[in-house]
Design a protein that fits this description.
Helices cover 80% and strands 0% of the residues.
């Protein structure tokens, strides 16, 4: 009766669904600029914020390190307040962290770490919301495209915003709190008590009719969960290593800082169509069998292309790298959804894959920076990243095999329904 009253008091179901999808996209757009805005102006940070240049690898690593240790926060907040309110709260904290780290130089590193925790809290709940709303591959694709769009906007607009603020870099970084506040408002409106109740009733009703719950089996004992986690972590390690150091590498090749930042933005923009289409194509098993391992090999080849190509071809090579890297992220998000049997399983798999995955990914920016510092060049760094991409291909091969991830040991009937959802 309570669920009916809440649903009746809310908006039209189709309008609520559209609002939820819009809110998810806006949320996704906000989950990368905190990283790419700094990456696009990494060479200016020591002078503006009085930061020791030796601390730059740590600055690039802190957000990802925060991702790795804050994975359980999202599901915990969602259990207490509902998913919509949990994501809204995370974006409010993100907005505060963006302002604090930009306006108080001494808090640049702590503020960056707090921003990473807020991003992770929101990020792990996106697949759970998609699954709870029975979102298709297009939902996941639009969300992953939002991540890429946010990364591109952060990298591409930071220097124009700096000029617009009369050369004030802290203002150009702090202004990104505004879209974070907008995302918090939208997701709170879409995922408030009525929206959460409707989603829970849909998911719970479906589960109660087809699933017989038995003794819970921890995800750490499920090979599929570990394979998905490895795939997510390895592609994230590559992504953050690239976004942290690509602009610095391009400057070392003779490009102006503004041109290098523009190519970093191009890296994200070029991948937008791939991040949209990869989750859609992943819903087709025949394509998934080729895509999962094939993307790792493609990323390896693209990295070596960026390393060996002349400056005149960097626009092309960076674009290719952006396409295959973004497709890998889209597939990683899709695997969380399509390799789980329901919203609760998706939420737990999301927390595990992104928590452990980002803990692994934190080694990317740090390792790339240290290899560059030790060798004085970029050859060993790029070859190491290419080797990692080959390991990514192996993880993708394993992630698409084995049973679906489920929180509980369900009946055979539930397993068959899960397999049918994968085919769809």
């Amino acid at each position: 009766m309570r669920v009916k009253r809440l649903a009746g008091a809310g908006l039209n179901p189709r309008l609520m669904t559209g609002l939820m999808l819009l809110a998810l996209v806006v949320v996704s757009v906000n989950l990368r600029p905190a990283i790419t805005t700094v990456a696009g102006v990494m060479n200016q940070v020591p002078g503006v914020f009085n930061l020791d240049p030796a601390m730059l690898p740590l600055l690039g690593t802190l957000p990802v390190l925060a991702f790795g240790i804050s994975g359980p926060i999202g599901p915990w907040l969602a259990g207490r307040f509902g998913t919509g309110r949990a994501v809204a709260l995370a974006l409010l904290v993100l907005a505060a962290a963006l302002v604090v780290r930009a306006t108080v130089p001494a808090l640049l590193l702590p503020g960056t770490f707090l921003a990473g925790m807020a991003i992770m809290t929101a990020s792990v709940l996106v697949p759970q919301i998609v699954k709870a709303n029975r979102g298709t591959g297009w939902w996941t694709g639009l969300c992953t495209m939002g991540f890429g769009l946010g990364a591109a906007l952060g990298a591409g607009l930071v220097q124009p915003l700096e000029h617009a603020f009369s050369g004030n870099l802290p203002s150009a970084l702090a202004v990104w709190a505004v879209p974070a506040l907008l995302g918090a408002f939208l997701i709170h409106r879409a995922g408030g008590p009525a929206g959460d109740g409707a989603a829970r009733s849909l998911a719970g009703g479906a589960a109660s009719t087809i699933v017989t719950r038995k003794r819970a089996v921890p995800l750490r004992k499920r090979r599929t969960a570990w394979a998905v986690t490895a795939f997510f972590g390895l592609q994230a390690m590559l992504y953050f290593a690239i976004t942290s150091w690509l602009a610095v590498y391009l400057v070392s090749r003779g490009l102006a800082a503004a041109d290098a930042a523009a190519l970093l933005a191009w890296f994200s923009l070029a991948g937008l169509p791939a991040s949209l289409l990869a989750p859609v194509l992943a819903g087709r098993p025949a394509i998934l069998r080729i895509m999962a391992p094939g993307l790792g090999v493609s990323v390896a080849l693209a990295l070596l292309g960026v390393l060996t190509s002349p400056v005149e071809l960097q626009f092309l090579m960076v674009g290719i790298l952006g396409v295959v890297q973004s497709a890998g992220f889209g597939l990683a998000m899709a695997l969380v959804v399509i390799r789980s049997d329901g919203p609760q399983s998706a939420g737990k798999l999301s927390a595990m894959s992104q928590g452990f995955g980002f803990a692994l990914a934190s080694l990317g920016p740090l390792g790339a920076g240290l290899l560059h510092t030790m060798t004085g060049g970029w050859e060993l760094t790029f070859w190491a990243l290419a080797a990692e991409a080959v390991v990514l291909a192996g993880a993708g091969f394993l992630a698409i095999r084995g049973p679906l991830v489920t929180v509980d040991q369900g009946s055979q009937q539930a397993e068959n329904v899960s397999k049918a959802s994968l085919v769809r």
